[in-house]
């Protein structure tokens, strides 16, 4: 988390494997640039992008400047700021499969430390496809400097493994090479301001917690919908799908924030202990229940914004008979005293009508209603909606009497909007998380057991889906997914909520 005071990290060398890739272009360099603008980086900071592509330092910086101009929340900082920031960036051409090349990293560290006259913290950021992670980690683990636990960290991007087995194997491998406190398993949803604010809303107020349980809550929904299709990421997504790409990590972590018991401190392991308890309490889905509680979909060809748009199977890097789901919805229960029998509905998908991530906490109806039935607008009146993005807000919906001589009761809303309440822009998730890595705060990162517990939740669904051939494609681009997704909540008497 961003420190309360402008506490800057010590001298740092950040190596980004996948420096020439999309994540660095869109997210990592823009985040570092914003940290630099806000004076959060050390005066002794150096970032080294690695990849097989052929760049000079200069051409690499030019490419990253394009990324900043397209994707940074602040695109137009003064030119001299970019000029001074970009001096921290270098490029090292290297094939990660070349075991002999890793000595160059130690040489770079020694040279920098000599130039600076101080010892630096070293961060290895693995922004590469999951299959490259074991090889890179093994080679890094052999570098003598990686034994220096207090100053060397490794960041591993999601998805962490492909399933429970490969995640366990990766955890074992990393555990043999690094101490747990050196390993940062990143899930960028935990770096989002609005996700972090769930803990503040719940545990810095006395107002909500007394009603945040099965006695008052009817159901909880978490939707992360995207309008985009694949955007050239077919090679990665085809081997992943919506359940692995979004639900196993981002949405389950959001669920943990909503459902967790109060931590007694914000020390990293205390928060992680509490959230892993939630994952472990999620009711195991039996194979024969999968079709009742999980829905998958894949968009076909169609019209979006008045234009023809290809179906998933026509996208680059996708098999013509692909079984990969681009939409997933699940119904889960958290078996504990607080949440027994409260359904948690999670859904996510590509090519949906809106880009939005929203949490809905629907409260039960008032126990007795003295008002005439015709005076009111239904029972779903008390609802708390937490807008994660793009609308960053919290909406409390309650019943009010409409002014006038007839008795009419309608739902109204009290709205807290970040935009109205705070001046300036909020930091992007990767700004927060990169700063946390540099300052050594692992609170917002996954521990080995959390990742494995999250895989256990989705494993029965993955296995059942693997064993069956779905009837794909089954939803129109620009729609809210397959019909079965609506039925998942409607059969319980509810409907999907976005506001
Ligand atoms: N893109 C995004 O918005 C997000 C991505 N992520 C995660 O980040 C990771 C990277 O994704 P993304 O950046 O999109 O992928 P890209 O395909 O754009 O980038 C892959 C990178 O890996 C490098 N690479 C591949 N093979 C080698 C090799 N043998 N040696 C050295 N470098 C190699 C490529 O460099 P080169 O070709 O030059 O060798 C390239 O820089 C994935 O795990 C993804 O899930 C997570 C959240 C969002
Ligand atoms: O990790 C991922 O997240 C993005 C969505 O992130 P958001 O911050 O824009 O909500 C998703 O598009 C991508 O498929 C997935 O890999």
UniProtKB/TrEMBL annotation:
Residues 297-320 are annotated as: Disordered. One of its GO terms (molecular function) is NADP binding. Its EC number is 1.1.1.49. Residues 16-197 form the Glucose-6-phosphate dehydrogenase NAD-binding domain. GO terms for cellular component: cytosol. It catalyses: D-glucose 6-phosphate + NADP(+) = 6-phospho-D-glucono-1,5-lactone + NADPH + H(+). GO terms for biological process: glucose metabolic process; pentose-phosphate shunt, oxidative branch. Residues 199-496 form the Glucose-6-phosphate dehydrogenase C-terminal domain. Keywords: Carbohydrate metabolism, Glucose metabolism, NADP, Oxidoreductase. This is Glucose-6-phosphate 1-dehydrogenase. The active site is at residue 250. Belongs to the glucose-6-phosphate dehydrogenase family. Substrate binds at residues 188, 192, 226, 245, 350, 355. Residues 304-320 have a biased composition (Basic and acidic residues). NADP(+) binds at residues 52, 158. Pathway: Carbohydrate degradation; pentose phosphate pathway; D-ribulose 5-phosphate from D-glucose 6-phosphate (oxidative stage): step 1/3. It comes from Spirosoma linguale (strain ATCC 33905 / DSM 74 / LMG 10896 / Claus 1). It comes from the Bacteria. Catalyzes the oxidation of glucose 6-phosphate to 6-phosphogluconolactone.
């Amino acid at each position: 988390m961003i420190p309360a005071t402008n506490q800057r990290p010590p001298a740092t060398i950040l190596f980004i494997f996948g420096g020439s890739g999309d994540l660095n272009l869109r997210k990592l360099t823009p985040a570092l640039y914003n940290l630099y603008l806000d004076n959060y980086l050390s005066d002794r900071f150096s970032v080294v992008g690695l990849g097989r592509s052929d760049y000079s330092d200069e051409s690499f910086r030019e490419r990253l400047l394009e990324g900043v101009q397209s994707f940074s929340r602040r695109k137009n900082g003064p030119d001299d700021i970019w000029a001074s920031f970009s001096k921290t960036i270098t490029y090292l051409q290297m094939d990660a499969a070349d075991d002999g090349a890793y000595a160059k990293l130690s040489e770079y560290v020694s040279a920098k430390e000599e130039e600076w006259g101080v010892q630096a913290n070293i961060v290895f950021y693995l922004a590469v496809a999951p299959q490259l992670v074991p090889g890179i980690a093994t080679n890094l683990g052999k570098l003598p400097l990686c034994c220096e636990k207090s100053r060397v960290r490794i960041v591993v991007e999601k998805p962490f493994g492909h399933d429970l087995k490969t995640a366990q194997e990766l955890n074992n491998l990393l555990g043999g090479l690094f101490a747990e406190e050196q390993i940062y398993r990143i899930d960028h949803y935990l770096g989002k301001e609005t996700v972090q604010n769930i803990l503040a809303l719940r545990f810095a107020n006395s107002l909500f917690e007394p009603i945040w349980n099965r006695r008052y809550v009817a159901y909880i929904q978490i939707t992360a919908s995207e309008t985009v299709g694949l955007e050239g990421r077919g090679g990665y997504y085809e081997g992943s799908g919506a359940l692995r790409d979004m639900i196993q990590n981002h949405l389950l972590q959001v669920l943990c924030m909503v459902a967790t018991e109060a931590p007694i401190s914000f020390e990293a392991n205390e928060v992680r202990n509490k959230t892993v308890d939630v994952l472990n309490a999620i009711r195991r889905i039996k194979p024969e229940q999968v079709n009742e509680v999980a829905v998958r979909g894949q968009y076909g060809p169609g019209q979006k914004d008045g234009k023809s748009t290809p179906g998933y199977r026509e996208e680059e890097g996708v098999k013509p008979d692909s079984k990969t789901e681009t939409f997933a919805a699940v119904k889960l229960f958290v078996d504990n005293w607080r949440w027994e029998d409260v359904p948690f509905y999670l859904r996510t998908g590509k090519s949906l009508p809106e880009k939005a991530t929203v949490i809905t906490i629907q409260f039960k109806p008032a126990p007795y209603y003295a008002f005439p039935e015709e005076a009111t607008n239904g029972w779903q009146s008390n609802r708390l909606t937490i807008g994660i993005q793009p609308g960053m807000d919290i909406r409390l919906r309650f019943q009010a009497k409409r002014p006038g001589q007839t008795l009419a009761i309608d739902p109204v809303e009290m709205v807290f909007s970040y935009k109205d309440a705070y001046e300036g822009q909020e930091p992007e998730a990767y700004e927060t998380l990169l700063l946390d890595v540099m300052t050594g705060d692992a609170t917002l990162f996954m521990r080995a057991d959390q990742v494995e517990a999250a895989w256990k939740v989705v494993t029965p669904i993955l296995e059942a889906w693997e064993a069956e051939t779905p009837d794909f494609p089954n939803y129109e681009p620009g729609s809210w997914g397959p019909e079965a997704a609506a039925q998942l909540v409607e059969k319980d008497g509810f409907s999907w909520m976005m506001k």
